[in-house]
Amino acid sequence: MLILGSMPSPKSREAAFYYMHLRNRFWPVMEALFADPANSLDHTGGSPESRRVFALRHGIALWDVIASCDITGASDASIRNTVPNDLTPILRGAPISHIFTTGAKAAQLYRKFIAPELAAAGFDIDMTPLPSTSPANAAKHLSDLIDDYRNAFRAAGISVNA
User: Fold this and answer.
1) Which domains are present in the chain?
2) SS3 of 56, please?
């Protein structure tokens, strides 16, 4: 599976990895759904390297809809002058069965920029929008995010923890 955000936050850009803001709930959601409870070493940890290893172990590819843009802080609402990423090399080189987007802006930009390009390149791959795990979406409780992601992954045929 490929999970696409809109654009990394300043904290994520600083750490050179995805979803690195301390209050972003992406990694707790992934750990709840994919970690092997019988293996105490199978967890996301807090470092970019431990999270990279976890993602690779569980077949989670991460990227962004946007290659570059003008953005104020981490505010998706401020995104301007968008240049989309080209996903065709990823889809040609990896066995991606489904694409997910995190947050409304990522889904909107995917539909606007990426979906037409993929269709023109002959790709027929489903995309499912997921709720944002960002601290800006604080009204959504962690347990609700886990349920939403679990349901979406299962609907796409991806095995997750109960």
Assistant:
1) 2-155 (3.40.470.10)
2) helix
Asked whether the whole model's pTM tops 0.90, one would answer yes
Selection from 56, 108, 66, 102 nearest residue 87 by Cα: 66
pLDDT in tens, 89-125: 999 999 999 999 999 999 999 999 999 999 999 999 9
How far is residue 95's CA from residue 105's CA, in Å, rounded to a whole number? 25
Q: Who's near 160: CB < 8 A, 6+ residues apart?
A: 33, 34, 149, 150, 153, 154
* Paired sense of beta strands 66-70 and 80-84, if any: antiparallel
Longest CA span, the chain: 47
Strands 2-5 and 61-64: parallel
